[in-house]
Amino acid sequence: MMDDPLMLARVQFALTAGTHFLFVALTLGLATLVALTQTRATLSGSAVHARMTRFWGQLYVINYAVGIVTGLVMEFQFGMNWGGMSTLVGEVFGAPLAMETVVAFFVESTFLGLWIFGWDRLNRWVHLGLIWVVTLTAYMSAYFILVANGWLQRPVGYEMRDGVAHLTDLGALLSNPTAVLAFFHVLFGGLLTAGFFMAGVSAFHLFRRTEEVEFFRRSIRIGLATVVVSIFPVVVFGGVQFAYIQPTKQPGSERALAAEAEFVARFGPGDYQAPGLAAAGEVIMMFSWALMFLLAVVALLKLPFGRWLVRGRIFHMVLMAAVPLPYLAMLGGWVFREVGRQPWVVYGVLTTRDALSKVDPALITVSFVVFTGLFAVLAVVNGWLLLRFARRGPAAVQLGAAPSDAVPGAASSALTPTF
């Protein structure tokens, strides 16, 4: 593989994009749960919900901060490794990415900063409004990204002039079913991820017989309720997308054979069928969802019985072990969606080989080593930080704490300036 620049560039982007997507999913879901918890605390004056907002909000900010770095690094690759793509379809593909940056990301990050540093400084209703702006702009950001990706899957609203794609119908681009359906699929997938994460962390503390029983009893109920609510919409919006699936993702079907014949006539001989790895991704996705569905059924049965949620040690161990399941499902679905599009970057328009930058293969090798190593470090650091702060529990929360309330020894933490 190291002597094949195309494969190196593909694997590099797969690793970086797949890793970044894992950050995004938890960020989307956890932001929503934090906003709902703060809403409850603001409306009712509940002290336990106020503490829950700070604890889960701190974990959200950690995941968001590291995820930002992975997103910025990933986007560098469009210009570095995929220059042919930027040249041919940059006007269309770049439009939603520009909207994401200007309309969504800048607003989201600005209001998140105000939310982080506005504890006990801003009016409680203003502070609540900040986290809802953060959550809604996070959704906007995800939507624009999926508009760009949806266009790669099903190019619409453009025309080719002088060998370059030009945007002709912004409405068609923004309403592309492969983007809209994927957005709702990802939205509920993020909630499912956050639900399992919240339930798993709460189960860990309840398993250890924490003194914060009421805190984590409420948290585990919120997490499990989120799982129950999200499990069916995830599969519904995922299943509806099959109506727009590329024919070549159905090897051997009449549609696949007809599409392959068309591609051979237009672009010459080649392998236009989806790789076997795409089918493996689909199997992993469906198997993971089936396990999560079973857990959702158990959770639905247990939710009315608070005693079982607090004292069911076997159930706690199952929930802790289940935290990776939504991540496996998302990665499997991502592989099915993206690898299954091969050999196309823009389906039926631009092949992956033609999208590759015309640079020295040695530079792509260096890029592969550097970016892969960087993302591995970021993933490990994020996991370590989440585990560390989740394990400490609500008593050690620094988000929104006054300097006099700082946890002893916390000054050595790299996150102290943030929290």
Keywords:
single chain; 419 residues; mainly alpha; two-stranded antiparallel sheet; two-stranded antiparallel ribbon; 14 helices; 4 strands; 3% strand; disordered C terminus; membrane; oxidoreductase; electron transfer activity; heme; iron
Structure description:
By secondary structure, the chain is mainly alpha-helical. It has one domain (5-157, 164-248, 266-412). The protein contains 14 helices and four strands. It has helices at 5-44, 47-80, 83-117, 124-153, 170-174, 177-207, 213-240, 254-267, 276-302, 306-311, 313-322, 325-339, 352-355, 361-392; strands spanning 158-161, 164-167, 344-346, 350-351. The strands form two sheets. A two-stranded antiparallel sheet has the order 1-2. α3 packs antiparallel against α4 (124-153). The protein is globular. The chain starts with a helix and ends in a 27-residue tail after the last helix. The chain crosses the membrane at residues 12-36, 57-77, 97-117, 129-152, 182-207, 219-245, 283-303, 315-336, 362-387. Its EC number is 1.10.3.-. It is found in: Cell membrane. One of its GO terms (biological process) is aerobic electron transport chain.
